[in-house]
Amino acid sequence: MENLDLIVLRTLRDWRLQGKNAVLATVTRTWGASPRPPGSLMALCETGSVVGSVSGGCIEDDLIRRFATWETFVTAEGKARRPQWDCYGLSADEAHRFGLPCGGTLELLLEFNPDAALLTQLVRQLEGGALVQRQVDLSSGQVVLTPAERPSALSVTKHDMKAVFGPGYRMLLIGAGQLTEYLATMAVFSGFAVTVCDPREEYRRAWSVPNVQFIEGMPDDAVLAMKLDQRSCVVALTHDPKLDDLALIEALASPAFYVGAIGSRRNNTARRSRLAEHFALSDASLAKLHGPVGIYIGSKTPSEIAISIMAEVVAAKNGVQRADLDVASNKQKDDFRMKTDTLMHFS
C-alpha cells in the first residue's frame, strides 16, 4: 500500500493539470477525540471525486455538498479563493450530526485550486525519496517548497502552515519464514513498503506474499543498499546469528526508527553479549535494539506474534512508549504468577 499523502497529492495534481477545480483540506487541529490526526489530507474535485479523508465520512459528505459547483472554488473575479478555515463539532448537536466522537472538534484548512506546477514539483520530489517542507502563507495562499532535514509534526501559526512530506514508511524483514509472511502482510496493509531478505534457497522457493519485494543477497548488504532513514525499520526473524547479527549491526548504526530481533529472553541476552564482545557495539547502540521483539499480548502462534510485533512497530512510529507492555518484563510477571498460583494450589 502506497503512502496515503502521496496518493492524495498525486491525484490532486492530476485534477489540476486537467484544469479541474479542486480543494485540498488539511486537518490542522483537533480537540478531544477525533477520527483523524492533525496533518491528515483530503482532496476534493469539482466532479465530486474525493481522495483521502479527514473524518469517518460525514464531514467529507458535507464538503462534497458545499463544493458541488465551480463558483465555490473561485472569487467573483474568477481568481482562486484564499485559504479558509473550517471547524466541525463545536456543539454537541453538530458533533453528533457529523459523526464525531463525544466532545470531538476538528479544524480544517481549505486551499482552493493549488498551483499545478508546484504540486507536480512536490510529487516528483516525494517519488524520488526526498523529504520536503510545504509552507502555505495563510493570507495569500502562496506555497513555498523547501528541503527538510527530518520528519516533523504539522506546524500552524497565525501567519502560515508548515507540513513536512516524505517517502512512505519502509520495513525490512530478515528471513522468509511463516512468521514473516504474516508480518509482511500486516505491514503492507498498514502502509509500509516491505522488503524481505533471505539468501536461503529453500525459503526463496516458498515465498508467495504479493506486493512485497524479495532480495536474495546477504541481509547486511540489503540494509546498506536500502539506505535506511527515519521512516525505516528492520526486524530480524531468522534465529540464525550468521544472518541476523550482521544485519542488526548495520541497522543499529542507521537512523531507523525501530530495530528488533525475534528470540527468547535468553537468546536476546546472548545476542547483546555477542554484539558487544565481538563487534564492540556500545551500550547506546544496543539500547536501540528491541528484543524480545513485540509487545506482550500472550501470543503463541505465528499470526499472533506478528500482531505483537506490528503493534510495537506502529507504537514506535507514532512515538508511543510501550514499556508497560514489554514482552520480557511481562513474561517475568507471568512466570511469577504461575509459580505463585502453584504454591497456593499445593499449600
From TrEMBL:
Q: Which residues form the XdhC Rossmann domain?
A: 171-313
Name all XdhC- CoxI domain ranges.
15-68
The major lineage groups are: Bacteria, Pseudomonadati, Pseudomonadota, Betaproteobacteria, Burkholderiales
Source organism per entry reads: Herminiimonas glaciei
Q: Name one Pfam family in it.
A: XdhC_C
Task: From the Swiss-Prot or TrEMBL record, give the protein name.
Answer: XdhC family protein
Q: Which Gene3D superfamilies match?
A: NAD(P)-binding Rossmann-like Domain (3.40.50.720)
Q: Which InterPro entries match?
A: MoCofactor_Util/Proc, XdhC_CoxI, XdhC_Rossmann_dom
